[in-house]
């Protein structure tokens, strides 16, 4: 999930990699850095998580070479959308969540997408994954506008943890990134491992 | 899944099912359960998660159900089926106790479970471990798995999480353990399964049944045995 705060954004995910009920590993990272202030979270089928992130990285590098500048988050969202819609009738099973700051103005930006690339930009929070309903409930009740980075960290951590504690196939560790103008803080949460 | 914004009529036609999955899926106690005999009684244990598909409907379930004062059962499988069967057995043994004037044997309880589970094997999904103490044989553990067989074992494991434990219990079990050795044996086993099985989790509920009665212990949060490193 991702949330907007005051001049900052946060993006967080669990770390489980499993095959239906069995947990195979607890250190599978699903959040990828696409730029100094641009992160994408890719929940879904693990093989597609890896393929999409690699293909996206390639396209992003080509863009940066041609344009000779860092990509804007909104443009990046359109790039992801295009990549996914190319596979309209045989889609990648990922539902990405994007969080970042504009490279020039440092405006916060969050967006999410369905598996065939329909983009959705919001001003508060976006969620994606098997426990999306639980996450919507937690976010609706905990989020408020203009949270400072420390408060945003607490809010997103609690929202994520309590949501995936009600899902049998999510959890087993969590990672939270707080993206501000001058720094990005990555924290690993201590969670229930069940 | 894909979002849609089509007109009302077509939407109703092919999105006729908007009820969420967790309202339609049967409740199962996905589960890990275990029981072990020692000289003088038994130790039984279970996790506390009930799931409806992937949604955790109850995270503090009590799967250790009392049948008589000295006989308990550990339930796994369909929540409804196991509750119904346990209620029937409890009723029948209560009646038996009034007729015979003495406490029923664990063997009797196990075979009563078996009668129900076997006769209705095509219609129910119930994997049960019956364990308790009686004055004839002391502590006993009987497994009554899916098809309705009964077998007495020195220790038994069951539920979806038990598949992760066969190696562990086979290597750690020793004959003639004391109650103090049995409790961590069961707790560690349950914790390992909860760590890997999606359908098991929550807290560990343990019970020690001896001639003096039943002693219940719950292991929550940081009390759960830990087999992983925080990283």
Structure in words:
Chain A: InterPro entries: Ntn_hydrolases_N, Proteasome_beta_3, Proteasome_bsu_CS, Proteasome_sua/b, Proteasome_suB-type. Chain A: Keywords: Cytoplasm, Nucleus, Proteasome. Chain A: One of its GO terms (cellular component) is cytoplasm. The complex is a heterodimer of chains A (194) and B (231). Chain A is α+β, with helices and mostly antiparallel strands. Chain A has four helices and twelve strands. A five-stranded antiparallel β-sheet of chain A has the order 10-1-2-11-12, with helices on one face. In chain A, strands 5-6-7-8-9 form a five-stranded antiparallel β-sheet. The two termini of chain A are 20 Å apart. With 231 residues, chain B is an alpha+beta fold. At the A-B interface, loops of A face α6 of B.
Order of helices and strands of chain A: EEEEEEHHEEEEHHEE
Structural class of chain B: alpha+beta
Largest sheet of chain B: 6 strands, antiparallel
Number of DSSP E strands of chain A: 12
Characterize the main sheet of chain A. 5 strands, antiparallel
Give the SSE string of chain B: HHEEEEEEEHHEEEEHHEE
Low-confidence stretches of chain B: none
Active site (chain B): 31 (nucleophile)
Protein name (chain B): Proteasome subunit beta
InterPro entries (chain B): Ntn_hydrolases_N, Pept_T1A_subB, Proteasome_bsu_CS, Proteasome_sua/b, Proteasome_suB-type
Catalytic activity (chain B): Cleavage of peptide bonds with very broad specificity
